[in-house]
Fold this protein.
Amino acid sequence: MGREPIRRPIRARLRYARFLIRPRALSGTSLELPFAAGCIVALGIALVAEVLTPDAVVDVVALLPLLAAVWLLSTRWAVVVGVIAIVVFLTAVTLEVGNRLTLMLVGSVALITAVVAGMYATALASLLSCIRHLRPTVVTQATPSTLNGIDGFRHGIRSLTRRELEVARLGAEGFTTPEIAGRLHIGVRTVESHLSSAYSKLRISSRAELIRMATRLGIPWA
């Protein structure tokens, strides 16, 4: 009964955290290249639309794929998309004589916004990465109450391999088994094997118990 007030906020934060788009979320994944290609295609479509509508400034829609790229992609691919976006804006300025001043202003604002967003994404991704690798140093109310339970729990965490700890942390954050496999570039069965081993060492038997010990696994928002 004493733990119930703690479990509910943990589950609530976990539920809402699933809808957050993490910075550099696609970096190093198999989806990064297709997504970058999609952003480049979207920039090309924006340029074509601008050329076909000389009386309207529609090139501003290029800001959307540009922002998506700088937030989700690695720095390398974000720069590639950014360079192509600059080429698109310069081409539009060259072709649209009547809207040249407006396009220059729109392009400048879009590029500055993208640069700021990219810097923020890089800093936030680095911060989250550092926090995620911190070991827990404080005892929480989720710790087993008996002396044997405490000793076994601590020993269980220390006995986890680096990969088992990574898998357990992602599982405690609410990622599904396929999502964990995709982020760590390993097979689904490998993830299941690591989770099974982690459950055994931590003396738990379900994902719900894993989520409840999220703080002890080094997840600060839990």
Remarks:
- The chain is about 70% helix and 0% strand.
